[in-house]
Amino acid sequence: MNKLKLLLVGVLLLVGVESSRGFVMIGPMLQTEVVAGATDFNITDDLGGPKELKHFFRWNNPFLTYTFDQSFVRYFGLEGM
After folding, report:
1. Each residue of 37-60: pLDDT tens digit?
2. In whole angstroms, what is the distance from residue 36 CA to residue 8 CA?
3. Which of 22, 25, 42, 64 has the largest CB neighbor count within 10 A?
């Protein structure tokens, strides 16, 4: 009986879950945003430039590379990495 209740609660929780979508607030630069020889305000990088809130750009890259500095390793230790 307990397993049935647990299963019912699990199903009800899963029914209420919405799908989540990943987005970042940067995207590819448009040609109108890139001006050759103009002043660079340092708002862009290799990944792109800032985008408005309603214009999402999904970064579809299956690989994520990250590093730790010495202070992070000292604070969290090897278990925190």
Report:
1. 666 555 555 666 667 767 666 666
2. 61
3. 25
Q: Does residue 79 sit within a domain?
A: yes
If one counts the domains in the chain, the total is: 1
Q: What's the domain range around 55? A: 22-30+46-81
Q: Are 51 and 57 spatial neighbours (Cβ–Cβ below 8 Å)?
A: yes
The answer to whether the CB of 48 falls within 8 A of the CB of 28 is: yes
Burial of 20 (0-12, 13-18, 19+ CB in 10 A): exposed
The rounded mean pLDDT for the chain is 73
Q: Over the chain, what HEC string results? A: CHHHHHHHHHHHHHHCCCCCCCCECEECCCCCCCCCCCCCCCCCECCEEECCCCCCECCCCCCCCCCCCHHHHHHHCHHHC
| 9 falls within a domain | no
